[in-house]
Amino acid sequence: MPSIPWLRTSGLAAAVLCLPACDSNPDTTELRFGIDPTTYIRSRTAESSPSRRTAMDTAPVLPTFRSDDGLMFTVESAHATLFDVRLELPSGRECSDSKDLLPPLMTCTDAADGQPGTLTVKESLQVDWMKATIIPDGPLRIPQGTYRRIEARLGQSTPALPSFSMDASFTWEDQRRVLTVAFPSTAALRFEPRHPFDLSDDEDALVVGGLDLTTWLVGVPVAACLASGDLTLDGSTLRLESGKGACEGAAERVKHNIEASAKLSLASPQ
Description:
Elements: E1 17-19, E2 28-33, H1 37-40, E3 64-66, E4 72-88, H2 95-98, E5 106-109, E6 118-121, E7 125-128, E8 133-135, E9 140-143, E10 145-147, E11 150-154, E12 164-172, E13 175-183, E14 188-191, E15 206-211, H3 222-228, E16 233-234, E17 237-238, H4 250-259, E18 262-267
Parallel strand pairs: 2-15, 13-17
Antiparallel strand pairs: 1-10, 2-9, 3-4, 4-6, 4-7, 4-11, 4-12, 5-6, 7-8, 11-14, 12-13, 15-18, 16-17
């Protein structure tokens, strides 16, 4: 699949993060993808399954979000397939400076023809946002330096699988229900910090590519639409594709909200 283009520099993109030394390697820090701080800051432990060596040591605390009219949802699962995960090589660095620091999943390309050097994850990543784990196994360690953003794009590992999927439980008419969201997409995800920050004095910080759950149901009044019949349940399952009236186009709106919700933040491991 083709790579996504680099973004033009903007005021937000100009916010930078400086990646310092970290405990396991004084010249690298770890990049994780997750949506709940109590999960993604936990130390990683080896499990019996080789494909799950990066699993966290305890069960996650389930994150929540609300619809436009206040109905609360609890995320129970969330997965995505990311392609072309890349970072612009820090200014003043060449690939030769980082050749002994990169994990097997990552490659480096020096600047050429006016294009910046890049660090690229050479395989697609299957991200479990709830457990803050990836397949192929991580962790992803990146060289010390200054990075303005992380870029990726959604994709499908096979035509039968969605690019993004999520189940979130909620209570309606005193019963547990489940909102199911799944869609194919090739949208670019732009993980950028919301505010400038500097890690030069924080040797333990993790870099976390996350999603802003608070935006996912903006513009979708789920409770009102259920009450009016503009959304209907299939047994205990709610699929937004059934939306009409005030919730017509709700599935496409939520898809766009999720695609636009990427953010970059800092955390300290426990």
